[in-house]
Amino acid sequence: MDLKDRADNGNEVTRVLKVQNKMGIHARPAAMIVRIANKYESVEVWVEKDSDQINGKSIMGLMMLAAGQGSELKFIATGDKAPDLLNELEELFSRKFEEA
């Protein structure tokens, strides 16, 4: 399902997060994002960068965004627990994916 095709259920929450770690969104950070997203089975999450849009529960999709340091990613989540998911992701981004 494409973001443009989904129904607006009024539960949509968005947040723009900036990639701060030196190596950007490579395999390990992508896996960390997906691990958090999958904890929220009832939440649908999409990620936008420039004109690209991917499912936020897809490791390959996240890596294909080629989001380097300084990139801004817009997370769009729908569902009752969407704010919780985005709060966890914001914390992960602020910790620079635990990278030095």
CATH topology: Histidine-containing Protein, Chain: A
> Roughly what is the average pLDDT, rounded to an integer?
92
CATH class: Alpha Beta
Quaternary status of these chains? single chain
Are there runs of 5+ residues with pLDDT below 50, and where?
A: 1-8
Give the topology string: H per helix, E per strand. Answer: EHEEHEH
Number of helices: 3
Identify the CATH homologous superfamily.
HPr-like
Draw up the topology in text:
Layout: E1 13-18, H1 27-39, E2 44-49, E3 52-55, H2 59-64, E4 72-78, H3 82-94
Antiparallel strand pairs: 1-4, 2-3, 2-4
Helix pairs in contact: 1-3
Protein name: HPr family phosphocarrier protein
Family: Belongs to the HPr family.
Subcellular location: Cytoplasm
What does this molecule look like?
Helices cover 32% and strands 23% of the residues. The protein starts with 12 loop residues before the first strand and ends in a 6-residue tail after the last helix. A hairpin with a 2-residue loop joins strand 2 and strand 3. It is globular. The N terminus is likely disordered. Strands 1-4-2-3 form a 4-stranded antiparallel sheet, with helices on one face. The protein has 100 residues and is α+β, with helices and mostly antiparallel strands.
In short:
This protein is of the alpha+beta class and 100 residues long.
Name some characteristics of this structure.
100 residues; four-stranded antiparallel sheet; disordered N terminus; Histidine-containing Protein, Chain: A; single chain; HPr-like_sf; 4 strands; alpha+beta
